[in-house]
Structure prediction request, 213 residues.
Amino acid sequence: MATPVMPATGIYNQPMQDLIQRLLIELGEDPTREGLVKTPNRVDKALRFLTSGYQADIDGMLNGALFSVDYSEMVIVRDIDFYSMCEHHLLPFFGKCHVAYIPNGKVIGLSKIPRLVDIFARRLQLQERMTNQIAETIREKLNPLGVAVVCEGTHLCMSMRGVEKQNSFAVTSAMLGAFRDNARTRSEFLELIRRSGPVPNQSSVVRMTCNDE
Ligand code: ZN
Prediction:
């Protein structure tokens, strides 16, 4: 697919590394200078890691981590760090994710929830979609009485490019089952995750994330 841009170097044979070498040239750089010689290889590895969520096996990851219990109080895992890439600009967005559910006979090992967040974050994403995917997957795998996911993210495509508010911060939420139907349950969750940062009241999306300009 990619034609060799600088055949003289002869060190890049993978299509992605050829593309990145070509990108460096398009940006006005000299890909043969010392600091950039290994950049296509590094970027290749970094991008494959940052998008490794596409290959993740969710059922395999959850295998052996679902337990039957007689417990129906809210389970919350808050302040889960996430790092993702905006699909409009291929720039990072990152922040914290808070996940809660109310079991209906089954719970999931607590350490699996951050793993699930990673699987959906390590893709080209929209924060709104990532939030929904985390919630929908927990609903599908656990069939709980309710699921709530709130993500708070800083988008470099907004703050670095200066097209919108410099310190803008996007908050997205997905409320399913009891968290959607019962205001008291929802408030209890929002109270438990409340910190200095903004959290949504009852609207499902406080501010849209990056536009596609
Ligand atoms: Zn963006």
Summary: The CA atoms of residues 60 and 198 lie 35 Å apart. The chain has a mean pLDDT of 87. Residues 127-142 form the longest helix (16 residues). The domain at 66-193 is CATH 3.30.1130.10 (GTP Cyclohydrolase I, domain 2).
